[in-house]
UniProtKB/TrEMBL annotation:
Annotated protein name in UniProt: MFS transporter
Residue ranges of every copy of the Major facilitator superfamily (MFS) profile domain listed in the record: 16-423
Family membership: Belongs to the major facilitator superfamily. Metabolite:H+ Symporter (MHS) family (TC 2.A.1.6) family.
Keywords per UniProt: Cell membrane, Membrane, Symport, Transmembrane, Transmembrane helix, Transport
Provenance organism: Streptomyces milbemycinicus
Bilayer topology term: Multi-pass membrane protein
Domain of life: Bacteria
PROSITE patterns (UniProt xref): MFS, SUGAR_TRANSPORT_1, SUGAR_TRANSPORT_2
Predominant subcellular localization, coarse grouping: membrane
Length: 446
């Protein structure tokens, strides 16, 4: 009888990894293509005559997505704690698909006036809600669905999928730019990446419908319904919530600096061509993606704090020299090596930040505890990183931004040095002698 579940037992773990993390791929793909293709669709939704005004309007709608992320973190984090991780993962991907489809079919200004811009705004609101909840839902699911000795490795696939989404978006941009005329891209070509995003989200929805709920969540089912995922319950863990904000601060600023802002920095400051700057970012992000599972597995052996501390020290001390050197580089190879050096440092944060946050909270408030503080920190520091960088550049003091990134890392470093190690934290308070059912045996986690 014991051999009956062997086949599903071999398949279920990687199904959980893929189902739990792949939504991040679609999220970041959508996030990237909106920003990248804005120059092509801005004229479709706003009056012609002022290109800068058109871009500012689309950028304003883009920014709304960041403001909605804390709202999504609160609503969907609460939903995940009250209705389950699987239900939340399915809901976030539904919102993803809807937002991408709305942009793909949105009517233009010439057809319906500002109504098209209104559709674009609604789509970004939905996407902001989705992104705000997706991070926490996938972080808690991946953490809870894995064995204690492999939680760092498994949860690292969250950033593997996030980076893959950016790479796919960048790759599609390059392909469309080389296969379509500029006029065609402005006319209808910009809709293609959003159609792709809607279809991809539908595929992810199908994958997630077949996921199993985590055992950790089911074992916490006896907890009072009224306390699950509430702000009142989160406030009882306000120290942990504040910890999430503080440990995220330095990491999210560094991450956005060396991923989304890097291409613009290499082009506008270092003077590389746009094509070379894009290729540097693509190659660096690809290597960065491969590093995540390695660092996650390392944290399972030596603990989370050593990696976080390495990131904190490295980012605090190396940011100014690396950014200064990047500003003077004039070769593809030099820019790539410096970018890789920076991303290796950032890996100490990205590979394990999701699992560390999930390990700080009890099951009944874990998703909300990860979602809301992270979304707030991300909106305040990650979402504004590019704006702060450009503000310093416009003021003629670009090096001030380097010190800003270092300062944020220094604040987080203090937290890393004083926080407790979370690697061996038990995610459940279920009795140790609780017998495993045959269903649980059949779905042994990663």
């Amino acid at each position: 009888m014991s051999v009956t579940p062997s086949a599903p037992q071999a398949r279920t773990p990687w199904r959980a990894v893929v189902g739990g993390s792949i939504g991040n791929l679609v999220e970041w793909y959508d996030w990237f293509v909106y920003a990248s293709f804005a120059t092509y669709f801005a004229s479709a939704f706003f009056p012609k005559g002022n290109d800068t005004a058109q871009l500012l309007n689309t950028a304003g709608i883009f920014a709304v997505g960041f403001f909605m992320r804390p709202v999504g973190g609160w609503l969907l984090g609460r939903f995940a704690d009250r209705r389950g991780r699987k239900a939340a993962l399915t809901l976030t991907v539904t919102l993803m698909s809807a937002s991408a489809l709305l942009i793909a079919i949105a009517p233009t200004y010439d057809q319906v006036g500002y109504f098209g811009a209104g559709v674009l705004l609604v789509a970004r609101l939905l996407q902001g809600l989705s992104v705000g909840g997706e991070y926490a839902a996938s972080a808690t699911y991946l953490t809870e669905a894995s064995q204690p000795g492999r939680r760092g490795f498994v949860s690292s696939f969250q950033y593997v999928s996030m980076t893959a989404g950016q790479l796919i978006g960048l790759g599609l941009l390059i392909v469309l730019q080389r296969t379509m005329s500029d006029g065609s891209l402005h006319s209808y070509g910009w809709r293609i990446p959003f159609i792709v995003g809607a279809v991809a989200a539908a595929v992810v929805f199908w994958l997630r419908r077949n996921l199993l709920e985590t055992e950790v969540y089911e074992e916490a089912g006896a907890h009072r319904e009224s306390e699950r995922g509430t702000i009142a319950e989160l406030l009882r863990h306000r120290k942990e919530a504040a910890l999430v904000i503080a440990l995220t601060m330095g990491g999210t600023v560094a991450y956005y600096t060396y991923t989304t802002y890097l291409t613009k920095y290499l082009s506008n400051t270092a003077g590389l061509s746009k094509s070379d700057a894009s290729l540097v970012s693509f190659c660096a992000l690809f290597v960065f993606m491969l590093l995540q599972p390695l660092a996650g597995a390392l944290s399972d052996r030596i603990g989370r704090r050593p990696l976080l501390i390495t990131f904190g020290v490295g980012s605090m001390l190396a940011t100014v020299p690396i950014m200064t050197a990047l500003s003077h580089t004039d070769s593809f190879g030099g820019a790539l090596l410096l970018s890789l050096a920076a991303l290796v440092v950032v890996t100490g944060y990205t590979s394990i930040n999701a699992v560390v946050k999930a390990e700080l909270f009890p099951t009944h408030v874990r998703a909300l505890g990860v979602a809301l503080p992270y979304a707030l920190a991300n909106a305040l520091f990650g979402g504004t990183a590019e704006y702060v960088a450009l503000w310093f550049k416009n003021a003629g003091a670009e090096s001030g931004f380097y010190w800003y990134v270092s300062g944020c890392a220094a604040v987080s470093l203090i937290v890393y040095l004083t926080m407790r190690e979370t690697r061996d934290t038990s995610l459940t308070k279920a009795p140790a002698d609780q017998p495993a059912t045959s269903e649980r045996a059949a779905r042994t986690p990663v």
